[in-house]
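Worked example (supplementary).
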Amino acid sequence: MKEVSGTDSALSTGVSLPVHGQGEAGAERSRRVDAVRNQGKVLDAAERLFARDGVERVTMQAVAKEAGVGVGTLYRGFGNKAGLAMALLGERERQFQELMISGPPPLGPGAEPTDRLTAFVAGYAELVADQLELVLLSQTAAPGARFRSGAHALWRTHCRHLLSLAGAPSPELRADALLAALSGEMIAHWLTEQDRNLAEITDALAGMARALSTK
Amino acid sequence: MKEVSGTDSALSTGVSLPVHGQGEAGAERSRRVDAVRNQGKVLDAAERLFARDGVERVTMQAVAKEAGVGVGTLYRGFGNKAGLAMALLGERERQFQELMISGPPPLGPGAEPTDRLTAFVAGYAELVADQLELVLLSQTAAPGARFRSGAHALWRTHCRHLLSLAGAPSPELRADALLAALSGEMIAHWLTEQDRNLAEITDALAGMARALSTK
DNA sequence: TCATGAAGCGGAACCTATTCCGTTTTCGTG
DNA sequence: CACGAAAACGGAATAGGTTCCGCTTCATGA
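After joint prediction of all chains, the assembly is encoded as:
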């Protein structure tokens, strides 16, 4: 089971926290120590319960109880259930972002745009598949909410940039379209309702990425 | 305001009705007359309230009350709120299906596969944009539920077929990917959060469809 | 150290979608 | 027409996400 580093794994994935974004925008005044501690307790509790009972069957009440806090605290810290999922996803997303921004080619800098894009698509699909339940939950938020998360903005910018370098028309819209094909719902559908394996999926997606890179 | 033909506009768009599918599969025994009448009353009431107050702010209770039936009747007839939306969408979807299957080219038969596909994509995007609120609601159902609707199956089959004729690799996955780019959430995002106009969107989507048609 | 106001807390209350189940209506049969 | 089973009904009850608000704790600075 993955470690989400108890105390400060918190989020850097934005989510649009009600109080202050913590990581999304520049740091303001320091948060109160009890608040930080509670966020950590909540993330631990959520991870534990999600792993044990499945994301869908864990209620916010249950998470609050397991963490030893009130539900109000959950909502102040994460906004809603989807936000909690995004925060849990944060750790792994950051790892992938790292590789994408400064890791070795073809995912990282140094390869041809099209190759970087196909590497991104394959890697991201794998990330989604690995964390399917959490991704599905995170994309459950109000329609369009996911587009506003800091994490998503990064994926989009990256794709747009690569498409742009490759000379593709409408790089912005194509970036969004590509990411739409990488939604949890889509991957879940291919994986579970059409019994495709991840390799098939990433191959096909890489092909699409290549096709969309073309002028 | 659109007429949903009071009595029998019902659905032919499937939705996975709890009791019997009514139109999805071959007709079984005839439904009870009171049930048919109630479905009509519900559709009328829903359309009226949705138009007046906005889809999001209309509760199932309110629809039931306006229709003069109990909530149980709503759920027996449409499964859930998303199902109700799908049923309301049905009318216009059927019109588009008609054009797509037997209308004039390039949407209908007779044109090159790629041209038919771009026509489909543009037309479908327009349909979604026109009915944005209902589409968003209909896609709110349990993750993946939309892939199981009869309507969606038809769109997918059509795209897959055209992509296949055009010689594209992985026509099935590409069809799904194309439809993912046509989701209500995606179109809404482009339209409202990026102030694109429909023409821009359909142009870009048509370009993508063309790119994806390529071997 | 103490006062003070902001930040955070807990958990009851709220709002809705959805389910359940006892009652009523239909419809085919005898 | 009368019956009985099946199909529908209605609306109270349930469940779980989210909001609200009075109370506590922390951080600051005098």
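Two points are worth noting when inspecting this output. The two ends of chain B are 45 Å apart (CA to CA). The interface with chain A takes residues 136, 139-140, 143-144, 147-148, 168-170, 172-174, 176-177, 180-181, 183-186, 188-190, 192-194, 196, 200-201, 203-205, 207-208, 211-212, 214 of chain B (CB under 8 Å).
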